[in-house]
Amino acid sequence: MFSRNAFNTFKQASQNASKRFSTQAGSAKTYNTLMGVSVATAVGSGASLYYLNKNSAYANMEADGLHPADHPFPQKKLLGTFDHASIRRGFQVFKEVCAACHSMDLVYWRNLVDVAYTEEEVREMASEYQYTDGPDDTGDMFERPGKLTDPMPRPYANEEAARAANAGALPPDLSLITKARHGGVDYIYSLLTGYCEPPAGVEVREGLNYNPYFPGGAIAMAQNIFDGVVEFEDGTPNTASQIAKDVVTFLNWAAEPELDERKKIGVKALLLFSSLTAIALWIKRNRWHTMKARKIVFNSPKNWQKKN
Ligand code: HEC
After folding, report:
1. Contact 187/177 with Cβ under 8 angstroms?
2. C-alpha pair distances (Å), 270 with each of 81, 110, 142
3. What angle (nearest 5°) sits at the alpha carbon of residue 185, between those of residues 184 and 188?
4. pLDDT tens digits, 8-31
5. Residue 96: burial class (beta carbons within 10 Å; 0-12, 13-18, 19+)
6. What is the pLDDT of residues 88-147, one digit of tens each?
7. Would strands 209-210 and 130-133 be described as parallel, antiparallel, or unpaired?
8. Which pLDDT score is estimated for 299?
């Protein structure tokens, strides 16, 4: 039974093979259908994974924090870039509000030049802070006004001092915070604007504040963004949501200062490589033309059958 089946399969296969050699039509059709089905499956499963990833809600909101809403920041769009007026306002918010507790060690004054401020403006801002430098000729450290090459000033001398001033909690360095948190800009915007009364039955420990977006719900940082907490020089309405949006844009720039340039290079690379691909395909078509268009005909010599 088995051998017979095997023989039939073999026969079928050889028939198929000879069919394929006589004409390509049948197998090409099957091949195309198979390719179509597999491409459709791949695209379909990719799309459903993307959809699930974008739209999934957490099963445990309390432990993981409330899922932040998707906010239309321009830099999130495929070809969108930073709103630089917003970065400028955001830095003002950081300087006047957040810098009281948070450091920003990876951002130097010079980084702000031509991004949100002119060089003179940055020099002037930096010189308002005192930095320890030295040693001088006598071996002593001395204080001098800040320069373009200095980093953002730190609010606390060390981690212990920071914890002591914040009921044991450490205000994290904000240089890379939009990259360091799940949900990025949306999470930080929601966190800053999401403070509310704890729901019935939820106890928040002394010194902590209720915020549904913070994993666990109780955060050591108190609400510090309110309507009118900063005064914008360009006359932008200083509502809490505007202030939060601007500081989040600034934090996003600090974490990804290369974003604008990266997208510009991306567009150039796509244009360049797609035209190179088109040229390569065209050349290949020319080179392969003789091979692809030829037809091999075998004329058996006379008495061929007899000789073999
Ligand atoms: C009075 C001090 C203080 C000020 C002012 C302050 N923060 Fe905080 N911040 C903290 C502390 C303390 C924590 C740590 C909270 C914790 O771990 O419970 C924190 C944590 C954070 C976190 C991290 C939350 C997380 O998911 O871990 C972000 C983001 C943040 N602050 C942003 C800001 C921004 C933006 C501002 C300015 C608008 C600001 N903070 C102003 C004290 C402050």
Report:
1. no
2. 17, 32, 52
3. 90
4. 554 454 454 444 444 455 678 899
5. middle
6. 999 999 999 999 999 999 999 999 999 999 999 999 999 999 999 999 999 999 999 999
7. unpaired
8. 81
Using DSSP's 3-state secondary structure scheme, residue 116 falls into coil
Q: How confident is the model at residue 189 (pLDDT cuts 50, 70, 90)?
A: very high
Average pLDDT, the chain: 89
pTM: 0.80
More confident residue, 108 or 5: 108
Candidate of 221, 245, 251 to mutate for ligand 1, largest count of ligand atoms within 8 Å of Cβ: 221
CA of 98 to the centre of ligand 1 (A): 7
Alpha helices in 217-258 (DSSP H): 240-255
Helix ranges (H only) for 138-233 are 159-165, 177-180, 184-193
Beta bridge partners of 145: 130
Residue 100 CA: distances (Å) to CA of 130, 165, 259, 294: 15, 11, 28, 78
Residue 68 makes CB contacts below 8 A (sequence gap 6+) with 183, 186, 187, 189, 190, 191, 213
Neighbour count for residue 244 (Cβ, 10 Å) = 21
Q: Token match 């023989």: residue? A: 7
Is 196 labeled as ligand-binding? Answer: no
Is residue 182 part of an annotated ligand binding site?
no
